[in-house]
Amino acid sequence: MTEHHHAPPIITKRHHEPKRACDDMYQFTYSTQASRVVFGAGSLNLIQEEVDTLGAKRALVLCTPEQRAQAEVVSSLLGPSSAGVFAEARMHVPIEVARRAREHAKSVQADCAVAIGGGSTIGLGKAIALESALPIIAIPTTYAGSEMTPIYGITEGNLKRTGRDPRVLPRTVLYDPELLVGLPAKLAFVSGINAIAHAAEGLYAQDGNPVMSLMAEEGIRALANGLRGLKRNPRDMTARSESLYGAWLCGMVLGNVGMALHHKLCHTLGGTFDLPHAETHTIVLPHALAYNSVASPDAMERIARALGASAAADGIYELAQELGVPSALRDLGLKEEDLDRACEIAMSNPYWNPRAIEAAPLRALLQRAWEGSRPAP
Ligand code: NAD
Q1: In 10 A of CB 24, how many CB atoms?
Q2: Residue 23: its pLDDT value, please?
Q3: Euclidean distance between CA atoms 113 and 121, whole angstroms
Q4: Residues in contact with ligand 1 (CB, 6 Å cut-off)
Q5: CA distance 30 to 328
Q6: Residue 33 DSSP SS3
Q7: What are the pLDDT digits (tens) for 165-218?
Q8: Could you tell me the distance, in angstroms and rounded to a whole number, from the CA of residue 365 to the centre of ligand 1?
Q9: Model's pTM, two decimal places?
């Protein structure tokens, strides 16, 4: 058993339900996953120490072709401990790329992978670790949150296979807000709302617990505040640091509790219609929250409070408008005639959600998300 397996439960009872007037007693299971987080501007400079701490001698640096320059900086900071740069990470982790990366890691005798980038690059690190248990040091440069989760995804043909495995959870995460300076504002905003989605769904998760709820609420607050700060002044390092801190918390929530309607819908839309990940999350979130609003009043209250808004779904919708990010699926190229199929696929795979998934209201949700109209329950 590695240190990445779930630690023994600290407090054990069965499912957590939101507290209700008739049932005020806590009931939940809380387990945690071990990873080391180093946070702060300039923390990239600690990479050599972190590789040493893992006892590794040959670190293979992973990145996308676009982020090769950042990866070369990491490689040179590592000096003789670098096993070079593998710059082939791509969206959705295609199996061919994963295989090439695994073979390359073997051929250079890597004993650790350093993934610098967003969810796609960290996902490639996870694909290597899934087979080899190679320890990963993640250096996230977006707010997506993959670095804090044991969730992997690999695409073969047109099918993205996802799963959970403790071996893929990065051992160490270096959060350095200076690395996000080059992230274009639009990408930063949609990535931040993507992270908020993890925390929002974590607040009504079937297996939620009070500790994750604290992190979720604080994560949403920090991200909303940080993203607004970046909108006012794209060079504001304090706002960038606050956003990244929020992303860490939201990533923790994603890694520790189950997601529901919103994440399933985005997975369907992204997978079937090839829509961009973070933008899709940004557009769908207010509508998914509106759908669940009556069934999860406590979660909605906490989301609204974290946003400084009077209601959760409206609050997210307004935040997106304030940040000037896309608000309609039609603007991502989805066709109106695809909505029936999207609804059918989303209905075909049953999963837990605080409100039952029903075809007519789900189809109405998709219509509103497609048009970009205000969310409605
Ligand atoms: P991404 O990793 O696909 O990156 C998008 C583009 O932005 C890439 O070209 C990348 O090189 C570039 N980029 C990233 N950071 C940059 C920076 N600071 N400056 C300049 N360019 C930068 O985008 P993402 O939204 O981070 O990740 C999306 C993917 O991650 C999806 O496939 C999603 O399914 C996955 N994901 C997985 C988990 C998980 O827990 N497994 C969690 C969240 C997301």
Answers
A1: 7
A2: 61
A3: 11
A4: 64, 66-67, 91-92, 117-121, 123, 141-142, 144-146, 149, 151-153, 179-180, 182-183, 191, 254, 277-278
A5: 37
A6: coil
A7: 999 999 999 999 999 999 999 999 999 999 999 999 999 999 999 999 999 999
A8: 26
A9: 0.93
pLDDT of residue 16: 44
Low-confidence ranges of the chain (pLDDT < 70): 1-23
Long-range contacts of 151-155 (CB under 8 A, 24+ apart): 151/254, 151/255, 152/93, 152/123, 152/126, 152/127, 153/92, 153/93, 153/123, 154/93, 154/94, 154/95, 154/98, 154/123, 154/127, 154/130, 155/92, 155/93, 155/94, 155/95
What pLDDT sits at residue 157? 83
Q: Tokens at residue 335, please?
A: 């066709």
Q: Atom 28, ligand 1: which residue's CA is nearest?
A: 119
d(C-alpha 143, C-alpha 68), whole Å:
19
Which residues fall within 8 angstroms of residue 344, CB to CB, at 6 or more apart?
none
Query: Whole-angstrom Cα distance, residue 345 to residue 330?
Result: 18
Q: What is the pLDDT of residue 200?
A: 98
Name the one residue in this structure whose structure tokens are 């969206």. 91
